[in-house]
Amino acid sequence: MILDGKKTSELIVKQVAKEVSNLPEPITLAIILVGKNPASQVYVKNKIKACNEAGIGVKDYRLDEKATQKEVLQIIHDCNKDVTVNGILVQLPLPSHLDQDLIINAIDPKKDVDGLTIINQGRLFNGMEAIIPATPKGVITLLQKYFIDISGKNALVIGRSNLVGKPLALLLLQKNATVTVAHSKTTNLKEVAKRADILVAAVGKPNFVTGDMVKKEAVVVDVGINKVEGKIVGDVDFQEVKEVASYITPVPKGVGPMTIASLLENIICCYKMQVKDRELLN
Fold this sequence. Notes:
Blueprint lengths: L4 H17 L6 E7 L3 H17 L2 E7 L5 H13 L5 E4 L9 H5 L13 H8 L8 H12 L8 E5 L6 H10 L3 E5 L6 H6 L3 E4 L17 E4 L3 E3 L2 E3 L4 H4 L5 E2 L6 H27 L1
Parallel strand pairs: 1-2, 1-3, 4-5, 4-6, 6-7, 7-10
Antiparallel strand pairs: 8-9
């Protein structure tokens, strides 16, 4: 069965739009894009479109490829201080001359819609209230919308990035899965994969997960977005794996739309945290 991220995300966007329309004030996301990375431009365009659909305002900062660290940090500093800006997103990857960690951690954790600051990551690690990175959050939401039981299951996450692999492993642990994280140095990956009831591929290699790696009736989630001969394909060989899996996400229309829907939810989470802070100070 197909895990339809597009349809599920459309329902979430409608819910977010309804919630936004009932808020006592407008909410706004600041998006900072440095350079002209084609994939990043597409992602930013999709995020702006989703914000427009949900009634969320956007401050769109486009900087030249050669923008200095000081310029980027100044925009973040101004947005941190601006009470009308409720979320800040720095589109990754950044050009190599910029210090990504320094720039991400300059964002106020209560405006960190991507959940990438060390504060939000530490809070997630400790099981505290945190802004959760949008892709892992979207994966968990999609599994829950299809009533897929996570508790007690063997879950394998292939990929250990701070953006997807690590936070997703933590979220699956919080849902009482037994979690294995595999990566490029994992030996006997095929044997490890065959034991997984839930398999998540976030490795960035086209068609990396093949049918012979998947346990019969497993749930397979494909986070990968790769371009092969002008076509978008995932990290999972969809045609092979769909014959074995009980549930599978397509690429596109799987995890991608869920990421954007989760980002919109995160903007509301950020807004609520800021309101709470204001009430405490009054």
